[in-house]
Amino acid sequence: MKQPIRVAVTGAAGQIGYSLLFRIASGAMLGADQPVILQLLDITPSLPALNGVVMELDDCAFPLLHGIIQSDDPKVAFKDADIALLVGARPRGPGMERKDLLEANGAIFTAQGRALNEVASRDVKVLVVGNPANTNAYIAMKNAPDLNPANFTAMMRLDHNRAMTQVAQKTGTTINDVKKMIIWGNHSATQYPDVFHAEVKGTNAATLINDQKWLETEFIPTVQQRGAAIIKARGLSSAASAANAAIDHIRNWVLGTPEGDWVTMGVPANGEYGYSDLIYGYPVTCKDGKYSIVNGLEISEFSRARMDATAKELSEERDAVKHLLA
Ligand code: NAD
Ligand code: LMR
Which residues are substrate-binding (predicted)? Predict the structure, then answer.
């Protein structure tokens, strides 16, 4: 039996937490032979609800679940964590953009970055889900100077999965046929879902679809606005699909990406495609627990304008949180 992996989850009593924890404990994230210890964090008023979730986890009798810690103290929840899923933050409501949450949520990631820096495993892999995810990941990274900045990532995988389905539906194929999707930039309405490198059954997706109007007026806006459409329809922000994307993100990071495909992760930009000092959505391949940005893709003028626009928004968000950076 392998040694258990310690998985910290913040906002564990929330909506996403409720869709996420049971799947982690069942082995969906790290594999059917990998035991886990869940280290759950929420704020003090949410601890009774968290305790209810823990009772349900107990009642599932998951063979892979080797322990559960619950706390309102990040230093307890992050102690020796190998993986940290930072979900806990306020969701937006109708009519808000995700960056409107910076004020309410940014400070959470200062404190949590510091706590990770102090007590987590030196190799901790961090995924920020709480919005605005890219800039919150940037805040946490800057407040954790002793940890590897490359290990701070933001969730773009929900956008990636959304785009895959739009293309599969448009081409009358299934998800299994769609490869090499990219979501450049920010998890926000400026994100750029790019099908020009994607493939459907091995054929270039843009060539196969051959419908620039559909790309510009349907595909791109649908993916960009999907979060808002779900909030409008459900009255609550996406939760099960967000939890699923978090599982996909970590599973690929830890266990690797399939040959001939890549995934999108929000990762620190260090000059790739001309961007730096941001957490930017890039195509990455993963192997042996490490990701590498896919370099050298040809970028058209159409794509470049959109990639620059989302980078600009990220730099504005970064400038707005200067006071939260160490
Ligand atoms: P929710 O309100 O149901 O749950 C949030 C939980 O976080 C609550 O239990 C709350 O008590 C807790 N929390 C608040 N402050 C905390 C803190 N300082 N430390 C620990 N826990 C804290 O919200 P949700 O629907 O689960 O969404 C959580 C976040 O994820 C939101 O910001 C939402 O916008 C974001 N989100 C991101 C994506 C993405 O693709 N990146 C997708 C969906 C949702
Ligand atoms: C999403 O994309 O569904 C989440 O980020 C929630 C939101 O505010 O859109």
Answer: 92, 98, 131, 162
Phi, psi (degrees; rounded to nearest 5) at 184: -80, 140
ipTM of the prediction greater than 0.95, yes or no: yes
Q: Tell me what the mean pLDDT of segment 121-133 comes to.
A: 98
Contact 39, 8 (CB under 8 A): yes
Interhelix angle 15-26/47-60, rounded to 10 degrees, is 30
Residue 263 CB less than 6 A away from ligand 1: no
- Residue 298 has a pLDDT of 98
187 is catalytic: yes
* Nearest-angstrom CA–CA distance, 174 and 172: 7
Query: Each residue of 140-154: pLDDT tens digit?
Result: 999 999 999 999 999
pTM greater than 0.90: yes
Distance, C-alpha 143 to centroid of its chain: 19
180 pocket-lining for ligand 2 (C-beta < 6 Å): no
Query: Looking at ligand 2, which atom is closest to the CA of residue 98?
Result: 8
Decide whether any atom of ligand 1 lies within 6 Å of the 15 Cβ. Answer: yes
Cβ of 106 less than 6 Å from ligand 1: no
Mean pLDDT in residue range 65-82: 98
1 band by pLDDT with thresholds 50, 70 and 90: confident
| Residue 6 identity | R
Quick check: 81 and 7 in contact, CB under 8 A? yes
Helix %, strand %, coil % for the chain, to 5? 50, 20, 30
Q: In testing the pocket of ligand 1, which one of 19, 20, 42, 110 has its CB within 8 Å of the most ligand atoms?
A: 42
Integer Cα distance of 197 and 297 in angstroms = 8
Indicate the SS3 state at residue 151. Answer: helix
Q: Is residue 321 very low, low, confident or very high in pLDDT (cuts 50, 70, 90)?
A: very high
Rounded CA gap, 244 and 250, in Å? 10
Q: How far apart are CA 4 and CA 64, in angstroms?
A: 8
List Cβ neighbours of 152 (8 Å cut-off, separation of 6 or more): 126, 128, 137, 138, 140, 141, 144, 268, 279
